[in-house]
Amino acid sequence: MIDPRCQLYLISPLETGGDFPQQLKEALEAGPVAAFQFRVKDIDQQEAARLAAPLKALCDEHDVAFIVNDDIALAKQLGADGVHLGQSDENLKNARAELGLDVQIGITCHDSRHLAMEAGEGGANYVAFGAFFPTETKETFHTPDLDILKWWTAMMEIPSVAIGGITPENCQPLIEAGADFLAICGAVWNDPEGPAHAVRGFNEILESS
Length: 209
Description:
The protein is an alpha/beta fold. 40% of the residues lie in helices and 18% in strands. It has nine helices and eight strands. It has helices at residues 20-29, 45-61, 72-78, 92-99, 113-121, 147-155, 172-177, 186-189, 195-208; strands at 7-11, 35-38, 65-69, 82-85, 104-110, 126-130, 160-163, 181-184. The protein has an eight-stranded parallel barrel with strand order 1-2-3-4-5-6-7-8, surrounded by six helices. Helix 5 (113-121) links the parallel strand 5 and strand 6. Helix 1 (20-29) runs parallel beside helix 2 and helix 1 (20-29) runs parallel beside helix 9. The longest helix has 17 residues, at 45-61.
């Protein structure tokens, strides 16, 4: 997942049934995407695995890292490339013991330099900061400023992910501040012209930065 340029990291909507596999296919075919996070809530593991399987196949086909949100057991069952953990989820040490050294583990660090340092020292493969902008994807309690990205880039080699309300119109400062990945949800799946249009728009900005 490491590249000198900032890259796209797509996060699924909560509803990934219906025609969502086709939407993901269109998004992945529209331009470079580094990672896709499967994020669903309040369904059992069997149903989650059923929904995830075709999405993982699409990611494998397009050489995109498939990341599971919050569920170490599901990540292991699917043979996912990684798992993303929040501060209230199973801890990093347990995830590493369960999943092994080859699986990418990302940690939500909100607006906290302390949490980010702990994650980095604990062996996380990336840290995520946000929400940088207002978002309807999930409730927002933390709003970091750009300085945390600049500080992290200067301090650490571990990649950073910027998340929260990111659009083509507001992403440039995050790229300039040193974010390695832009985590995008609503701006892609809710684009009135479709997810492919959004992915092309973001990549035009990333390629010119």
